[in-house]
From TrEMBL:
SUPFAM superfamilies: Mss4-like. It comes from Amycolatopsis acidiphila. GO terms for biological process: protein repair; response to oxidative stress. The keyword GTP-binding does not apply. Its EC number is 1.8.4.12. This is peptide-methionine (R)-S-oxide reductase. Residues 15-139 form the MsrB domain. Its cofactor is Zn(2+).
Length: 140
């Protein structure tokens, strides 16, 4: 994974440490920017209230209050839980220009953010996030 310019992650581990802590599929998505297949992730259709955290470092990323049904095959949110929870960087892979979403704490890949798609959300943004990048902590 190429480094995010101008920022230092709060959680720093070697790639060996990440490989030991994450399963092979988790490592591929979180550390190598792979994408899980659509409609296969555990949180795609989840309606449980709670907080979605980074699976790699536990940082709070999204609230269930901002999750919406986009029918795109991945969990979608219209806003991060905190403006500093995620980082956005340009992604020119796959022959297109997109905005990649990273965990601000450990710089792990989460997914991409899209704008102007016409979803009826307050921000007109869709944070399209891999389920395998997240861990849901249900509200008590």
């Amino acid at each position: 994974m190429k480094p995010v310019t101008g920022t230092t992650p709060r959680v720093v581990k070697s790639e060996q440490e990440w490989r030991q802590e994450l399963g092979p599929e988790e490592y591929a998505v979180l550390r190598q920017a792979a994408t899980e297949r659509p409609f296969t992730g555990e949180y795609t259709d989840t309606k449980t209230e709670g907080v979605y955290e980074c699976r790699a470092c536990g940082a709070e990323l999204f609230s269930s209050d901002t999750k919406f049904e986009s029918h795109c095959g991945w969990p979608s949110f219209f806003d991060p839980a905190d403006s500093d929870a995620v980082l956005i960087r340009e992604d020119r892979s796959m022959g297109m220009v997109r905005k990649e979403v990273l965990c601000a704490s450990c710089h792990s890949h989460l997914g991409h953010v899209f704008e102007g798609e016409g979803y009826p959300t307050p921000t007109d943004q869709r944070y399209c996030i891999n389920s395998i990048s997240l861990r849901l902590t249900p509200a008590s």
